[in-house]
């Protein structure tokens, strides 16, 4: 008997039993491309979430260690002046999404999943900063952090069938997304995009989640090739040491659309990816 295919309606209906997407993350996302957004506005969003605020303040105080500053910072606005608005935003996003992802699945699944997500998020951010394409580094970080969120849904609601997909993919030399489509009629990229739409995330982030395994179909949205290349490089650099870190083929069209060339100059990019990924995972990966 053939197993039923997973539909968008089923994904959304079942996701209603999951924790709500964090409001503070939506508020921070709304400030990314807003030219009128100020540090004060960002600080106002963050201070209403005690956990995220504590992470930001801890980072700011750690950065001030060894300087002439003698007192601890207890104000988000002051923290932003110490470490910069972009660093505050990045820390808030990592902290908030870390807690959210941790609430979606069992701890034994979450740890390795989130470590990979952090690596891809950091690599996405670095690629957005490295290339001349109009892709927001903060949006790239978010898209990278959430690129595999559809797999969490499968872990949660289709654990047995999903558990068979990876061994099948390895045994037959195919991608995990193909193994998923054979079982569910849909892959984790599409499920993740459906969830992101349900959470009313921006269209460019939705597109990046949907297209990270098939970027050639959506190269007009810069975040799509950014996240695709970031995941391939995160696996190639083995940033988390997962068994699943197989190096899949990289889209030449995606690389061309980003103006990426793999020469001696790439070493610095790879070095930043590795150093920042390991640092971020040390802070947020557990």
What secondary-structure arrangement, pairings included, does this model have?
Layout lengths: L7 H8 L7 H10 L6 H8 L3 H15 L11 H8 L1 H18 L4 H24 L6 H10 L2 H9 L1 H14 L3 H9 L3 H11 L4 H9 L11 H14 L15 H7 L7 H19 L2
Overall description:
With 286 residues, the chain is an all-alpha fold. It has 2 domains: 10-103, no CATH class; 106-286, Hypothetical protein af1432. 67% of the residues lie in helices and 0% in strands. Helix 2 (23-32) packs antiparallel against helix 3 (39-46) and helix 8 crosses helix 14. The longest helix has 24 residues, at 107-130. The radius of gyration is 19 Å and the shape is globular. The N and C termini lie far apart (40 Å).
Question: Which superfamily, in CATH terms, is the homologous superfamily of the largest domain?
Answer: Hypothetical protein af1432
CATH topology of the largest domain: Hypothetical protein af1432
Note the beta-strand portion.
under 5%
Low-confidence stretches: none
Principal-axes geometry comes out as globular
CATH architectural category of the largest domain: Orthogonal Bundle
End-to-end Cα distance, whole Å, is 40 Å
> So how many helices?
16
Total DSSP E strands? 0
Number of separate domains: 2
As a percent range, the share of helical residues equals 55-70%
- CATH domain class of the largest domain: Mainly Alpha
> Using only CA atoms, what is the Rg?
19 Å
Mean pLDDT: 87
How does the major sheet shape up?
Answer: none
């Amino acid at each position: 008997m053939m197993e039923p295919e997973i539909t968008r309606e089923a994904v959304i209906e079942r996701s209603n039993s999951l924790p709500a997407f964090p409001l503070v993350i939506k508020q921070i996302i709304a400030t990314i491309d807003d030219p009128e957004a100020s540090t004060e506005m960002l600080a106002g969003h963050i201070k209403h979430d005690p956990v995220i605020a504590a992470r930001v303040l801890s980072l700011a105080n750690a950065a001030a260690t060894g300087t002439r500053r003698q007192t601890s910072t207890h104000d988000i606005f002051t923290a932003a002046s110490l470490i910069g608005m972009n660093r505050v935003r990045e820390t808030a996003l990592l902290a908030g999404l870390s807690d959210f992802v941790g609430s979606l699945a069992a701890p034994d699944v979450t740890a390795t999943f989130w470590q990979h997500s952090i690596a891809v998020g950091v690599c996405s951010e670095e690629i957005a900063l490295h290339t001349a394409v109009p892709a927001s580094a903060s949006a790239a970080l978010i898209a990278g952090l959430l690129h595999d969120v559809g797999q969490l849904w499968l872990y949660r609601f289709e654990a047995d069938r999903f558990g068979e997909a990876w061994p099948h993919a390895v045994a037959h030399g195919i991608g995990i997304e193909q193994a998923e489509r054979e079982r569910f009629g849909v892959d984790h990229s599409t499920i993740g995009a459906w969830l992101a739409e349900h959470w009313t995330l921006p269209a460019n982030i939705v597109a990046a989640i949907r297209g990270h395994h098939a970027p050639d179909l959506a190269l007009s949205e810069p975040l799509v090739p950014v996240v695709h290349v970031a995941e391939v490089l995160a696996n190639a650099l083995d940033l988390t040491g997962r068994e699943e870190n197989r190096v899949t083929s990289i889209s030449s069209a995606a690389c061309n659309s980003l103006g990426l060339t793999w020469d001696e100059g790439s070493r610095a990019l790879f070095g930043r990816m590795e150093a920042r990924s390991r640092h971020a995972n040390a802070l947020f990966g557990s």
